């Protein structure tokens, strides 16, 4: 380095730090000012600022401008120094950004040759740059080796920025390899490191990559939040191209949530912005998104227009990444135009491509099925539907974490929906029921068996009518579809399939009705019309098959998991709640219920009673009636048959060490929390551990300790959870105890009353002591409140508690 340049070095370092922190607008302005000072010079500092400007432009995906900045002759004295090496690195990055991969490879090879005589940081940077290119070229094994070399070198040399960069790109690689759960874990670590270093630009990109993994996993709420965060952070960092790209992620998430109006408005504005920025990848992504929306909203000509333009960009070689998506859209358009030969060729082209990711494959298979169906080729259609579902299930099984596997089916449930419609139209309603049940309780069924192997009941040969006979019940199995919804009514003598309104029509009534009950409204007086409409939609069509005073087992779907059917209002012979006609239980799948029934229940009547905990701050104050409820419940068990953990003794560790798997009854009297975004973070609130800060028994810990309890009762708020997942239902504490092995669980759909709950629980256990089963005992306890002459008649007091069966 030339001597006598201390002030120049200090000034350059200051601007470089702005770039490191993602303050690109300010850094670009100062870099341009510095270059103006060194105009027409070919010296060390001129090239330092040229390279810094190229770095900013590459970060902004302005690759042509970056190449122009570096397109100056380099003196022989600088060519073999860090200047020559960095010039080649950023030329390679610019060529990669422009999807000119061969040119990028040559640049990196030259940069790597020069870097052999330079400090370790330069080699580390090249490892990362090469690996980024290898990911784009889908050379994943090479990319992983390069990233790991970079990460090891960065840690060895304590190069924190490069460590964060390598880690973030390992996360991107995991996403590209469809290891979405692993990608989230790696990216979260990289995000924390980037935040600690104050590198907002890097953090914006990491947030976007995390969002993409959540979208692929079907966790649309988390994806939407992270995409919005990343787009905002990129915009604030002066990265307009990245901001626009992440807004396409927001739009795609809106599509997944079926909010087509928001998706279209955002895509149109983002496309306009992308055209101004002249970024081909974002332009084609917007065009494909708009084509998707047009197809879903039956605007075929508009879909064709957007698709044609996307293909034009791609055929010019301006974007390679969206090509397969555009081909898939073309196939769907040709199918709708009944050009079946062309459509089939396009779908096969997607399937045969080595670059097709798994979601594109199952979509191509499902759309092939729809095409064959339109042609009247039923056998070919069914074959493709089965392939699509097999591809979805294989991808889902590759996700290792329960919390991430839960949401996976949200991204593929529409193809189950298509297959079920196909089978119903062909008069194969029993087969359609089997397919519907196949999608249910997948994660709940995948629990550890006694020998440690993964246990799944989904493959068993379930006979629904025999199950109804054995349980002496009518089974109501619901499927809520985008276009068509169905109810299977299963009795010991027959299976009847009934068409009911589409999901959107049912959902529009369920949400306000549930909220009214949870807000302690007298819904019988204020919302009876809604209650009657829901009854007419969901139960009335099956009324003749359900005897009065009989047992009914519900298999809900979608938002129906959050509805207590007992509160539906029957209009004749005079208006009343449906609980007065039947005894209701909720289950998640026929397979799990059949498995539960097949297992022998122990005659042991031992109770583990936990509660009346020490208050933990203002968030979880003491429950005034907890001691009374514990006394009431304990009264029904002899001293030798009950174990009570209360007060300071009621800690998470004490529960886990009490051998909960040895008890037939577990009862919790305490606060409960329900996490919407992370349901396995839902928790039973207990007393703080001695010498520690932990006081929550999390759902994630509950599922790892096997149970054989006949009944677990969670006498706490929101024990059922607050979010329903496609195929899994409501996931929270009740789900966790069922997955741990409990046969029945009582949990609450909303906040519960401190005053009425001890009364209900006393009557529940009185019924159990009298020999009633949990469903009958709970119903009678609820009816006692309903038939009282005071405020307890409101569903708020008796309806939150539901009985879930089938583990």
Provide structural commentary.
The chain has 807 residues and is an alpha/beta fold. The chain has an 11-stranded mixed β-sheet with strand order 5-4-3-6-9-20-19-16-12-10-11, with helices on both faces. The termini are far apart. Residues 448-460 have low confidence and may be disordered.
Provide a quick synopsis of the model.
With 807 residues, the chain is α/β, with parallel strands linked by helices.
Strands, helices and their partners?
Blueprint: H1 6-20, H2 24-37, H3 44-59, H4 63-70, H5 76-79, H6 82-97, H7 101-115, H8 120-136, H9 140-156, H10 160-176, H11 180-197, H12 200-216, H13 220-236, H14 240-256, H15 260-277, H16 280-296, H17 300-315, H18 323-336, H19 340-352, H20 358-374, H21 378-397, H22 402-405, H23 413-425, H24 429-438, H25 442-445, E1 447-448, E2 454-455, H26 464-471, E3 473-479, E4 485-490, E5 495-500, H27 503-518, H28 523-526, H29 528-538, E6 550-555, E7 569-570, E8 576-577, E9 582-587, H30 590-598, E10 607-613, H31 626-634, E11 642-647, H32 652-657, E12 665-669, E13 671-673, E14 683-685, E15 696-698, H33 699-702, E16 711-715, E17 724-725, E18 729-730, H34 733-740, E19 744-748, H35 756-769, H36 774-786, H37 795-798, E20 801-805
Parallel strand pairs: 3-6, 6-9, 9-20, 10-11, 10-12, 12-16, 16-19
Antiparallel strand pairs: 1-2, 3-4, 4-5, 7-8, 13-14, 14-15, 17-18, 19-20
Helix pairs in contact: 1-2, 1-3, 2-3, 3-4, 3-6, 4-6, 6-7, 6-8, 7-8, 8-9, 8-10, 9-10, 10-11, 10-12, 11-12, 12-13, 12-14, 13-14, 14-15, 14-16, 15-16, 16-17, 16-18, 17-18, 18-19, 18-20, 19-20, 20-21, 20-23, 21-23, 23-24, 27-29, 31-35, 35-36
């Amino acid at each position: 380095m030339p001597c006598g340049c201390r002030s120049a070095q200090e000034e350059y370092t200051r601007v470089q730090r702005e770039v490191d922190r993602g303050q690109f607008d300010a850094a670009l302005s100062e870099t341009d000012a510095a270059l103006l000072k060194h105009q027409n010079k070919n010296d060390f500092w001129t090239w330092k600022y040229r390279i810094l400007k190229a770095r900013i432009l590459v970060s902004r995906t302005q690759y042509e401008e970056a190449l122009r900045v570096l397109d100056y002759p380099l003196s022989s004295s600088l060519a073999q120094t860090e200047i020559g090496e960095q010039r080649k690195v950023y030329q390679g990055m610019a060529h990669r950004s422009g999807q000119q991969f061969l040119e990028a490879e040559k640049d990196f090879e030259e940069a790597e040759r020069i870097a052999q005589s330079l400090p370790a940081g330069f080699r580390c940077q090249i490892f990362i740059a090469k690996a980024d290119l290898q990911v784009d070229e889908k050379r994943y094994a090479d990319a992983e080796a390069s990233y790991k070399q970079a990460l090891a070198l960065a840690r060895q040399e304590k190069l924190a920025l490069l460590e964060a960069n390598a880690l973030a790109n390992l996360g991107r690689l995991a996403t590209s390899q469809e290891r979405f759960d692993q990608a989230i874990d790696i990216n979260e670590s990289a995000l924390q490191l980037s935040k600690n270093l104050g590198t907002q630009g890097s953090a914006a990109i990491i947030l976007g990559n995390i969002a993409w993994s959540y979208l692929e996993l079907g966790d649309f709420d988390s994806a939407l939040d992270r995409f919005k965060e990343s787009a905002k952070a990129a915009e604030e960092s002066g990265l307009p191209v990245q901001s626009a790209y992440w807004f396409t992620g927001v739009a795609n998430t809106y599509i997944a949530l079926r909010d087509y109006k928001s998706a279209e408005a955002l895509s149109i504005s983002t496309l306009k912005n992308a055209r101004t920025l002249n970024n081909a990848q974002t332009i084609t992504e917007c065009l494909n998104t708009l084509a998707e929306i047009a197809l879903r909203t039956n605007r075929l000509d508009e879909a064709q227009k957007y698709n044609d333009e996307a293909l034009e960009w791609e055929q010019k070689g301006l974007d390679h990444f969206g090509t397969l998506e555009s081909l898939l859209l073309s196939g769907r358009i040709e199918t709708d135009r009944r050009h079946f030969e062309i459509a089939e060729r396009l779908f096969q082209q997607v399937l045969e491509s080595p670059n097709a990711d798994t979601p594109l494959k199952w979509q191509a298979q499902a759309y092939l099925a729809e095409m064959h169906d339109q042609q009247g080729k039923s056998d070919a259609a069914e074959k493709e539907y089965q392939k699509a579902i097999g591809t979805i299930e294989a991808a889902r099984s590759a996700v290792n974490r329960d919390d991430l596997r839960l949401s996976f089916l949200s991204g593929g449930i529409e193809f189950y929906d298509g297959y079920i419609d196909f089978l119903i139209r062909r008069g194969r309603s029993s087969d359609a029921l089997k397919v519907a049940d196949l999608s249910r309780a997948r994660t709940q069924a995948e629990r550890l068996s006694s020998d440690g192997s993964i246990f799944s009941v989904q493959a068993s040969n379930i006979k629904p009518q025999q199950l109804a006979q054995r349980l002496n019940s009518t089974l109501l199995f619901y499927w809520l579809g985008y276009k068509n919804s169905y109810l299977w009514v299963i009795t010991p003598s027959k299976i009847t399939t009934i068409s009911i309104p589409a999901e959107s029509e049912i959902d529009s009534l369920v949400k306000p009705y549930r909220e009214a009950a949870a807000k302690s409204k007298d819904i019988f007086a204020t919302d009876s019309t809604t209650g009657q409409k829901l009854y007419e939609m969901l139960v009335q069509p099956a009324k003749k098959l359900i005897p009065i005073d009989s047992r009914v087992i519900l298999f809900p779907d979608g938002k129906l998991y959050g509805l207590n059917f007992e509160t539906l209002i029957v209009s004749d012979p005079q208006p009343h709640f449906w609980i007065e006609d039947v005894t209701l239980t909720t289950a998640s799948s026929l397979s799990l219920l059949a498995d539960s029934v097949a297992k022998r229940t122990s005659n042991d009547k031992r109770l583990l009673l936990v509660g009346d905990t020490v208050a933990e701050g203002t968030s979880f104050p003491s429950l005034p009636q907890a001691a009374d409820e514990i006394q009431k419940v304990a009264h029904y068990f002899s001293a030798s048959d009950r174990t009570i953990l209360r007060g300071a003794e009621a800690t998470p560790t004490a529960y886990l060490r009490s051998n909960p798997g040895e008890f037939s009854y577990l009862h919790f009297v305490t606060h409960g929390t329900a996490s919407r975004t992370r349901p396995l973070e839902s928790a039973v609130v207990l007393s703080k551990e001695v010498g520690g800060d932990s006081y929550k028994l999390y759902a994630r810990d509950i599922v790892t300790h096997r149970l054989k309890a006949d009944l677990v009762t969670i006498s706490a708020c929101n024990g059922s959870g607050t979010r329903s997942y496609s195929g899994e239902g409501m996931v929270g504490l009740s789900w966790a105890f069922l997955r741990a092995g409990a046969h029945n669980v009582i949990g609450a759909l909303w906040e519960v009353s401190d005053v009425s709950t001890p009364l209900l629980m006393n009557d529940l256990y009185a019924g159990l002591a009298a020999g009633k089963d949990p469903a009958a005992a709970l119903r009678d306890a609820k009816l006692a409140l309903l038939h009282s002459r005071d405020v307890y008649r409101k569903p708020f007091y008796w309806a939150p508690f539901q009985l879930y069966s089938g583990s």
